[in-house]
Amino acid sequence: MYEATVEAASKYPEKRILSHFIQPHTPFIGKHRIGERDHFTIRDRALGNKSTTRRTRTPFERLEIGDLTYEDVWRAYRSNLERALSPTADLLDSLDGKTVVTSDHGNAMGEHATPFPIKVYGHPMGIRIPALTHVPYFEASWDS
Fold first, then answer.
1. How far is C-alpha 6 from the chain's CA centre?
2. pLDDT digit string (tens) for the chain, length 144 residues
3. Helix, strand, or coil here: 90?
4. CB of 28 within 8 A of CB of 79?
5. How many Å from the N-terminal Cα to the C-terminal Cα in the chain?
6. Rounded to two decimals, what is the model's pTM?
């Protein structure tokens, strides 16, 4: 992603470039790995195909049923995020103009979906709680 972003910014200096590092989505592929899951099943469902593969539980689903601890999931989540931070910092040094670092959503790890007495895990659609909607927003701006 880093190389493609730098190349696009060089090739199109007057354009806005959107670079999406997928971390910290599952599977968590940092130093602490959990959540290896069959993404083909998800793709098949999205395309309307019948999947022959059974989907394994996400780390958030495993946290919800008690198969993993909060600390297990947080350590893997953070490790996965850290994997993307170094190339992100390098991009901040490589790009001219304004650069924004943000996220598409957060993840819930047992927060309550107030006013309802239910706990939320992962990022289920249609749920609007701070853990899912308050995302980081960092803006850097300079010219070289």
1. 21
2. 899 999 999 999 888 888 888 766 777 887 888 866 555 556 666 777 766 566 678 888 999 999 999 999 999 988 888 888 889 999 988 888 888 888 888 889 999 988 888 999 988 888 899 999 998 888 888 665
3. helix
4. yes
5. 22
6. 0.72
Q: Rounded CA gap, 7 and 92, in Å?
A: 14
Q: Which residues pair with 141 in a beta bridge?
A: 98
For residue 6, which amino acid is it? V
H helix intervals, the chain: 2-11, 39-46, 59-64, 70-94, 130-133
97-102 and 137-142 strand pairing = antiparallel
Q: Which position has the token pair 């701006």?
A: 141
Asked whether the beta carbons of 124 and 111 are under 8 A apart, the reply is no
